[in-house]
Amino acid sequence: MAAIRTKPDHQSYTFPGFGSDRFPNLMLRGAGDLHNWHLKTYQERWEGYEGMRKALKMEPSAVIAEVKASDIRGRGGAGFRAGLKWSFMPKDTPEKKFTRYLVCNGDEGEPGTFKDRAILEYNPHQLIEGMIIGGWAMQCRTGFIYLRGEFAWLIDKLEAAIQEARDAGYLGKDILGTGWDFDILTYRGAGAYICGEETALLNSLEGRRGEPRVKPPFPASVGAFGQPTTVNNVETLAAVAPILRMGGNEYAKLGTPGNTGTRIYGVSGHVKRPGLYELPLGLPLEFLMNDLAGGSSTGAKIKGVIPGGSSAPIFTEKDFDCPLDFDTVRARGSMAGSGGLIVMDERTCMVQACLRLVKFYAHESCGQCTPCREGCNWMEMILHRMEHGQGRPGDLDLLASLPPRINMRTLCPLGDAACGPVESMIAKFRDEFEYHLTHKTCVPGTRSILPAAHAGAH
Amino acid sequence: MNHPLPPETSPVPLAPGERLPKAKREKLSPESIAKIKEIAAKFPDRLAGTLPALYIAQREFGFLSLGAMKEVAAALDVPEGHVFGVATFYTMFRKSPVGRYHFEVCTNLSCALNGAAELLQKVVEKTGARVGEGPTADGMWSVEEVECLASCGSGPCIQVNHGVFDEFVDEAKLEAIIDACRRGETAAWGE
Lengths: 458, 191
Ligand SMILES: Cc1cc2nc3c(=O)[nH]c(=O)nc-3n(C[C@H](O)[C@H](O)[C@H](O)COP(=O)(O)O)c2cc1C
Ligand code: SF4
Ligand code: FES
Known about the structure:
The structure holds two protein chains of two kinds.
Chain A: H1 39-45, H2 50-56, H3 60-70, H4 82-87, E1 101-106, H5 116-122, H6 124-137, E2 142-147, H7 152-167, E3 183-188, H8 198-205, E4 229-233, H9 234-246, H10 248-252, E5 255-256, E6 259-260, E7 262-269, E8 275-280, H11 285-292, E9 302-306, E10 315-316, H12 326-331, E11 340-345, H13 350-364, H14 370-387, H15 395-401, H16 403-406, H17 414-428, H18 430-439
Chain B: H1 30-42, H2 50-61, H3 66-76, H4 80-89, E1 101-106, H5 109-113, H6 116-127, E2 141-146, E3 158-160, E4 164-166, H7 171-182
Parallel strand pairs in B: 1-2
Antiparallel strand pairs in B: 1-3, 3-4
Helix pairs in contact in B: 1-2, 2-3, 3-4, 6-7
Bound molecules: flavin mononucleotide (FMN), iron/sulfur cluster and FE2/S2 (inorganic) cluster.
């Protein structure tokens, strides 16, 4: 089955200036080099495990304080402050001892997002180091790395890296003489986007169906196997290693106040140089899309960009100057989410794009809540009709009426996520939807992106 | 995520899982059972062994028949209903046979923008399998559309047998992938 990949990688992980003061290189160190994953390389070239050594000499609460000082926000989607999340974990008292767990979310299922795999593939030790630091800070017993099932091709390498760390004495019993035991186990999902949602992930990790849980209780009180648990994204945990190495205050100088540090942006779609780019937060979308990723690959103008993974509402030209940080993107009506930019040129039919995304959410809904389960299917059905020239009068209003009835009425945010593309695309490209209803076909000049069985008449 | 319960027999010959006579598909090998128990013991609760165990059973039988699921339940000592529930929730657990080479093409948005639809069409033409309709008559190929494989920046991408993963797939690359399967250089499903 899956083996360690030996093919060269074509992806543009780097750009001129990468690794400079302005664009520090904290996360993608050595990415693209297939031998970079070894412990030896990590320690010799990338200051590996220095952050861990520093952390293990500190009090656990001081480590949390350091992460709080860095003000790093979760890179998994919601942008929740990691230091704050860590401080929710209950501490031992003389009467009660807890078994705490740290879970790394490596489900990476959001369309448009492909950053975590680069860390897992090229820099697994940075993640392992981050997990050891987090495990120490919260005094966890075990760390779990939950990977999506399709990552079978990289799991061997990750396991090998974990073994290297064990052999070096960084995992296992009495780590570096602290008397603290910690180990990391990997767990493979089996093809369900919803398992990226943290409570669904915990259910899946326990060997159950990946259905989100009712909150509260939050994972910090009842998480994996009924014990207090913290779930963090791969990139968040990997960033903890440089935070400890540099010091939280130093890290907080990167990016903008309230949106600190660097993050890995993935650019895909109609650009010349799609790939991963590590940038401090707060640089304009245009800079990333045009200067770094090379602008339109087709020669046609860029019509829309989804700025933070498929769940984020779409941006049009007037928002291309938006700084990519959590707060400004939100203020402009979208979300920074997982940092995946999907770029679409003028010849993309928005009804097709919308249908393809909604089909995804309809397929991935776990089915627990009626508004999400039925609503997503309704949206798919209506869009399907429109795309196939069978739209009925009133369909557009019917479609537009669904998101308000799904949004905020579901157990987990998947329902809301499905509404983002629909609401924003109707608002910004209403004419295209209307054209489909009146002319029973796509706007002239667009080209089909859907497989034949789904595509409309062109 | 609703899937029908698995068919116990399939009219299609030769596909993995069908190579074994039905009787042989009813019992997990002692090695698999030992492996399942070993993995389950690593976790705080043996229920957590369910997903790994289903992968092991899928590997041995080619797909998860009702009998395979019952075996997993017995090996883990958990209720059968729990195992059915889990197996039917996840798409990577196959409830019916696939071809010796199972192709999965991402057709989600980023890949679609870069020609996933044409790629899917080519896979269909070259293998003769129909999308989502099980293996070809000779049991060699099956093709499915899948959701994002986390390779959006290097799409269109393809995964063969849940293992071998390829990006920037154009016609020449696809030809090479298929040839490698024909020559048996890519491990067949379940091997
Ligand atoms: C439907 C859905 C899918 C999600 N998928 C992922 C995912 O693939 N990876 C991830 O890290 N977080 C994902 N999340 C976010 C997680 O629930 C959680 O917020 C995150 O793992 C927390 O990590 P962070 O605080 O480090 O960002 C998803 C959330 C939802 C609602
Ligand atoms: S919102 Fe959708 S995916 Fe989330 S719990 Fe409800 S039905 Fe499941
Ligand atoms: S959209 Fe195809 S891999 Fe993400």
